[in-house]
Give the backbone structure.
Amino acid sequence: MTTVSKNTVARVHYTGTLAESGEIFDSSIGRDPLAFLVGHKKMIPGFERELMGAKVGDNVVFTLPPEDAYGPIIQDAIQEVPSDMFGQINAEPGMVLMSDIGPFKVLEVGEGTIKVDFNHALAGKTLTFDVMVVEVRDATEEEILHGHAHGPGGVTHDTQNEDNSCKGDGCC
Ligand SMILES: [Zn+2]
C-alpha cells in the first residue's frame, strides 16, 4: 500500500484549530478533501512531516508550534503607511485588504497614517490539526513537473477559465 512520501499525492480531510482557544480556523469537512503533492513545499512544513508514512484510513492528530506552521510574528511586517496610499478605500481597523505583496490587516487608523500588519493571519499561532487520510497514490510525471496535484481537491487546468488556470511553480 502506498504511504505518504515524496512524490505521492495525498488527499486528506482536515480540521485545524488554534491550540490556545480551540477555535476552528479552517476545515475541509463539508468540502472535497484537500489534495496535495507531497515533498514540494505545498504545505506548511510540519503538516507534511507529521503525515509522512501515513496510509489510507489513518487519523493523525498533531500540534505545530509557529515555526513549523506559519512562522513567528515579524515586527518589521507591522508598518505605518500614508493614508494617501489607500485612495478611495475607507480603511477601518480589522479590515483585510490586498496589496501587490499580499494581503494585510488594518490595525489602527491615525491622522494621515494607517498602521497595517503584513503578517500571515496565523503567524505566531500554535496550531492543532486533525487529519484523516482519504487517498494516497503515486504522483504522475506531469504533476511532479508542475509541482502540484491535479484532479479533485487539487489544481484543475481549464483554459477557458482563467480563475482555474495553473498558478503553480514552473507550470504551463
Ligand atoms: Zn499543473
Summary: Helices lie at 45-51, 141-146. Residues 146, 148, 150, 155, 157, 166, 168, 171 surround zinc ion (CB under 6 Å). Confidence is low (pLDDT under 50) at residues 160-164.
